[in-house]
């Protein structure tokens, strides 16, 4: 891993950056400036969603960056109330218009819910076949959701974006995704700032002259996890990206893996029913 332009190949051959910027709970001029700063630093992957209400600002920053569209990877997601075949197609057109992009690189189902995601997935398959999106994926899907989806579709999700950090390793889910060639991606990779309790990280961070956050992000990259830390502060956006000049040892990876306590900062997918 050499830098922010490093990519992995998804199961349909599309290259996705290993590292990107998350934009949850960022809006208005704030998110636009954050995306501008990230792109200037060298980020090439930006993650948004219709729920976030910031697709317009993200799209404006992307288009004004001067960076060739082929070099960028833009993700957005369909929200729960828009699930279902026809409603998803309509929601996608709203997102595409807000972003001001002809093609979205990755379009995802934001949450599984109960059963609507199967019809939603059919809509995503159509968008993929039409060339409106380059890859399709899911977010917050558990193993049983993925198995159910794969029983009714030959299109395996390219990505599964889930909450993943040292206190929520999601090992079984990650192993299932690896087995089925689904790229795991971490949202809330830094526990929404809740790093103070992770005292186990301090010796490792001190050894490399890095912050605990940088150690966590490096651990994720070395564990084949795509990660999208969110920040609206240019200095923090830069700091998060400065993780390509050191490498964790296998025993240090094991220390972070062993910190799992099954603690979530967000909702369990099986509890968000609609």
TrEMBL record:
Family of this protein: Belongs to the aldo/keto reductase family.
Could you tell me which residue ranges the NADP-dependent oxidoreductase domain spans?
A: 21-260
Record lineage: Bacteria, Bacillati, Bacillota, Bacilli, Bacillales
One example GO MF annotation: oxidoreductase activity, acting on the CH-OH group of donors, NAD or NADP as acceptor
The record places the site described as Lowers pKa of active site Tyr at: 77
Any idea which positions bind substrate? Answer: 110
Domain of life of the native organism? Bacteria
Active-site residues (renumbered): 52
Q: Give the Pfam families listed for this entry.
A: Aldo_ket_red
Q: What is this protein called?
A: Glyoxal reductase
Keywords, comma-separated and alphabetical: NADP, Oxidoreductase
Q: Does the keyword Membrane apply?
A: no
InterPro entries annotated for this entry? AKR, Aldo/ket_reductase_CS, NAD(P)_OxRdtase_dom_sf, NADP_OxRdtase_dom
What's the source species for this entry?
A: Paenibacillus stellifer
């Amino acid at each position: 891993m050499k830098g922010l332009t490093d990519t992995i190949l998804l199961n349909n051959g599309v290259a996705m950056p290993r590292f990107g910027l998350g934009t949850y709970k960022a809006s208005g001029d704030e998110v636009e400036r954050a995306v501008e700063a990230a792109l200037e630093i060298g980020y090439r992957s930006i993650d948004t969603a219709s729920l976030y209400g910031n697709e317009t600002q993200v799209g404006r920053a992307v288009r004004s960056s001067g960076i060739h569209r082929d070099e960028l990877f833009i993700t957005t997601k369909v929200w729960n109330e828009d699930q279902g075949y026809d409603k998803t197609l309509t929601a996608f057109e709203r997102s595409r218009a807000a972003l001001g992009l002809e093609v979205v690189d990755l379009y995802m189902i934001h949450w599984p819910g109960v059963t609507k995601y199967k019809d939603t997935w059919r809509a995503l398959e159509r968008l993929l076949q039409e060339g409106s999106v380059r890859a399709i994926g899911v977010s917050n899907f558990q193993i049983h959701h993925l198995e159910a989806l794969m029983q009714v579709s030959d299109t395996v999700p390219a990505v599964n974006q889930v909450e993943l950090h040292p206190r929520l390793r999601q090992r079984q889910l990650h192993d299932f995704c690896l087995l089925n060639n689904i790229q795991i991606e971490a949202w809330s990779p830094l526990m929404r700032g809740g790093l103070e309790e992770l005292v186990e990280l301090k010796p490792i961070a001190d050894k490399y002259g890095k912050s605990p956050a940088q150690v966590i992000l490096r651990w994720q990259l070395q564990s084949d996890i795509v990660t999208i830390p969110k920040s609206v502060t240019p200095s923090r956006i830069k700091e998060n990206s400065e993780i390509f000049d050191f490498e964790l040892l296998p025993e240090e990876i094991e220390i972070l893996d062993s910190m799992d306590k099954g603690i979530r900062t967000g909702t369990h997918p099986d509890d968000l029913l609609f």
